[in-house]
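User: Can you help me understand a structure? I only have the sequence.
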Amino acid sequence: MTVKCGALALTLDICIVGPNQIPKIETTRQVADNPSVAALSVMAHGHLDGTCERFLGGLKDAGSVEHAMRYIDYALEMVEGAAKSNLEVLLTMSTENEVVSEFKRTQQAIGKVQGKAEGEARGKALAAVQLLEHRGMKVPADMWARADACTDLEQAERWFKRSLDVERAEDLLD
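Assistant: Let's start by predicting it. Here is the structure, written out as tokens:
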């Protein structure tokens, strides 16, 4: 297939592969030598005993920790079913594998930041509803529930600002 854009032409050979054409991970060395193929192998063969273990074990020799962590992300994005479960369980287990440990620390830090932002959003959304009550408006239970479930900080900030001016509680939420 050739794609043309002005004077530039790019010829692509399309290759469609299925699980049978993707090599199985037999050793950690395979992973270290070609982590991108190993990530595909987890997608195709992660349900087989030892595949995910060899994948994670081989990543520690696949270059930098940051580089290896990207392959864990890729694998997690692509896998489904038993393979995803296997990989997720292995990532939660205690390990001396530096790549897995750093991946877990990074994911925990991301989770803390997300949790803090969600908590801030919830607090601001509830404050908006409380402000309506303080201003003498009756706030229905479903509005309280929506505010309590709010995890979007931008939305919560809009609600809070709007709570200063609205004439009816029903006009608060988007």
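Now, to help you interpret it: The chain is about 65% helix and 5% strand. The chain has a mean pLDDT of 87. Let me know which part you'd like to focus on.
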